[in-house]
Amino acid sequence: MKIMVAIKRVVDYAVKIRVKSDRTGVETNNVKMSMNPFCEIALEEALRIKESGLASEVVAVSMGPAQCVDTLRTGLAMGADRGVHVEAAGQLYPLTVAKILKSLVEVEKPALIILGKQAIDDDCNQTGQMVAGLLSWAQGTFASKVVLDKEKQLATVEREVDGGLETLELDLPAVITTDLRLNQPRYATLPNIMKAKSKPIKKYTPQELNVDVKSDLEVIQVTEPPKRKAGVILSSVEELIDKLKNEARVI
Amino acid sequence: MIKLMDKWRITNRLLNHSSKLIFDRRLSANSHNSVFRSALEYSESLVKRGFGNASTIRYRCFGSEATKFERNAAFSTLNSEDVSYFKELLGEKSVIQDEDVLLAANEDWMRKYRGSSKLLLQPRTTNEVSQILKYCNSRLLAVVPQGGNTGLVGGSVPVFDEVIINMGSMNNIITFDKGSGVLVCEAGCILENLVSFLDDHGFIMPLDLGAKGSCQIGGNVSTNAGGLRLVRYGSLHGNVLGLEAVLANGDVIDMLGTLRKDNTGYDLKHLFIGSEGSLGIVTKVSIHTPPKLSSVNLAFLACRDYFSCQKLLREAKRKLGEILSAFEFLDNQSMDLVLTYLEGVRNPFSSSMHNFYVLIETTGSEESYDREKLEAFLLSSMEGGLISDGVIAQDINQASSFWRIREGIAEALMKAGAVYKYDLSLPIEKMYDLVEKMRQRLGETAKVIGYGHLGDGNLHLNISAPRYDDMIFAQIEPYVYEWTSEHRGSISAEHGLGLMKANKIFYSKSPKTVQLMSSIKKLLDPNGILNPYKVLPHSLSNH
């Protein structure tokens, strides 16, 4: 059984986000880029499944500019067996990504696709659901626990929902998207970084996969959230009541 | 030098004998003019003598901190006229007598040293600092300048009843020149605030330390703080381009230049860098800040023995030269401690424990080039057997968790119980010998851990015990200082002397040098009101 994992290159989680001065998007020049944290969790889960003997191969897929190869190398250093890079220059929206993934499924024939539940840059939370829809596969989103049964070709997925846990049983092939508490991703060790250098990364273009990257969505403007105003220290309860009454007008 | 040291030891012994007397006087008069720092023996004798509430004396016994000496009788005590004067000068709000605030300001963050000051002043301008000092000097009121109070040697808290001059209200950034990278700001600016201010302009502070969230730049400069970036950017003696300081008599000395090069006469600003507020109060600083480079990589490595760490450092300097920005080490015992006492910290290595760990950070301008260079270096070091295992941070989050291990050691030590801290500069090849020697001396009675800035030859030797114990202390001091002195090291690499090591200065400086320091102190602060009992030995500075 083969597992395909989608990984996205995003502005590092710890970087302070800045909006471009022309308000067309977020500044990515000279900014540290890393693997989307949810994708790291997805890859870790795939590697654990493989290590427990339930999968034979883990293929990491990334889409975007040439530097996505760096992110793929990180994935390979964590332990993925192969990489696939779909090189595309412009902005890719979830539906396009889902279509590309669908085309890759036809080439790679995995029994399971694992993705992060969302990317921390656009917070779309759509790709996993869309790819499941396009493939007509079962889907288990926001997984906090995954158990595979190879004999019955079943995946049992626990998901955190309001007020408790929901358990789903999915027939394979299936799509799983991962939540934060599923696992703790491993570090890339030196020997594995060395090994990753010789692992193959296959390149495609969207055209080769018969996907049109044109989107119906258009970003009109990106702006920063309003700045939080500084607080004030009051000297008495009377003053507080006065402020609540006359300034905030809440009492 | 030996003679002087002996002399000091004898004085110390004499003072030890008289400690009982001092203590009795304190009890009867309930005055604060005797030493506050109570040794274990005090509370024990209290219990023996039937003073049931010995537990209210909650000073911790620290051996070296249980220095017994008396308040300098030449200093005046604060009276209500003084307080009214300060209220007139600064306004009610900046003259603080609130007990809770004073309790916090009287004690250092490790809760090792505690004074009994009754007054804290918060000046907002250089002129106010000047007026305060002018008045205190004329009245012979001793003062202690205080920044973030994050020091480790008792330099930032009063010893007796010194007036605390808190610099936190002078926290304005005055100018920043994007072209030259020169930042001019007031002394009370918190380091982390400066870091985030500079970050918006694409620059960084040339120093970084664990206490950045509380420590202030004036304190950093006054103590010549070192930290994690020293190996790359050098010490504050190089990065501080100018400063403004107020002398004991209230004179404002404007040395606030912003030039990289200025050879006109004696470069007096250096006197105020690292003199721990004993020569003047730093009120403004101008600092040269380097541009923020976009590519930072961090590797956490395991080494078999200390010799490999040393060799790795030599190789790293040669092969990573221009991008090397930190080279830190910790031993297995430090790692153990962090994993035991800090929540959420995990060992980056899945396999067995290693003997030593090294953090190598590179900072450069080209991500892929730096990365390739670092990887190539690490792989060849691994093949050469210098590294037994290693991980490279793949994102900032992973990098922070590696740093957390190194920076969390001090915190883990605090949680583990009593700790004797030593901050030593030693020749790199000898550095770890001392840790092993201490382990032999102490055996099972205490845990000895070693870590520090290997790249700068700076060892943090820490001895962790369940509780403070005179027997353990006797095994540590003066041996640690003697050993350091014998190997021509420094007994204070970056923490300063403060109260803890004022009398130990001779282990690292010759009598003539100390004598000259004392003359400078007398010239700039003839009445000795600035941060008394600290930095210089009491035999020279007190009366």
UniProtKB/TrEMBL annotation, chain A:
Family that this chain belongs to: Belongs to the ETF beta-subunit/FixA family.
Lineage: Eukaryota, Viridiplantae, Streptophyta, Embryophyta, Tracheophyta
GO cellular component: mitochondrial matrix
Gene Ontology biological process terms from the UniProt entry: amino acid catabolic process; fatty acid beta-oxidation using acyl-CoA dehydrogenase
Name of the molecule in the record: Electron transfer flavoprotein subunit beta
Compartments it resides in: Mitochondrion matrix
Signal peptide start and end residues: none
Keywords: Electron transport, Mitochondrion, Transport
Sequence ranges assigned to domain Electron transfer flavoprotein alpha/beta-subunit N-terminal in this UniProt record: 23-213
Protein function: The electron transfer flavoprotein serves as a specific electron acceptor for several dehydrogenases, including five acyl-CoA dehydrogenases, glutaryl-CoA and sarcosine dehydrogenase. It transfers the electrons to the main mitochondrial respiratory chain via ETF-ubiquinone oxidoreductase (ETF dehydrogenase).
Keyword Transport: yes
A Pfam family recorded for this sequence: ETF
Source species of the chain: Citrus clementina
PROSITE patterns registered for this protein in UniProt: ETF_BETA (PS01065)
Top-rank lineage group of the source organism: Eukaryota
GO molecular function, a single term: electron transfer activity
Record text on subunit structure and interactions: Heterodimer of an alpha and a beta subunit.
Record's keyword annotation contains Signal: no
From TrEMBL, chain B:
Gene3D superfamilies found in the cross-reference section: 3.30.465.10, 3.30.70.2190, 3.30.70.2740, Uridine Diphospho-n-acetylenolpyruvylglucosamine Reductase, domain 2 (3.30.43.10), Vanillyl-alcohol Oxidase, Chain A, domain 4 (1.10.45.10)
Cofactor: FAD
PROSITE patterns: FAD_PCMH
EC number(s) reported in the record: 1.1.99.39
GO cellular component assignments: mitochondrion
Keywords carried by this UniProt record: FAD, Flavoprotein, Oxidoreductase
Start and end residues of each FAD-binding PCMH-type domain: 113-292
InterPro entries in alphabetical order: FAD-bd_oxidored_4_C, FAD-bd_PCMH, FAD-bd_PCMH-like_sf, FAD-bd_PCMH_sub1, FAD-bd_PCMH_sub2, FAD-linked_Oxase-like_C, FAD-oxidored/transferase_4, Oxid_FAD_bind_N
GO molecular-function term, one example from the UniProt record: (R)-2-hydroxyglutarate dehydrogenase activity
Reactions catalysed according to its record: (R)-2-hydroxyglutarate + A = 2-oxoglutarate + AH2
Similarity comment text for this entry: Belongs to the FAD-binding oxidoreductase/transferase type 4 family.
Protein name, per record: D-2-hydroxyglutarate dehydrogenase
UniProt organism field: Citrus clementina
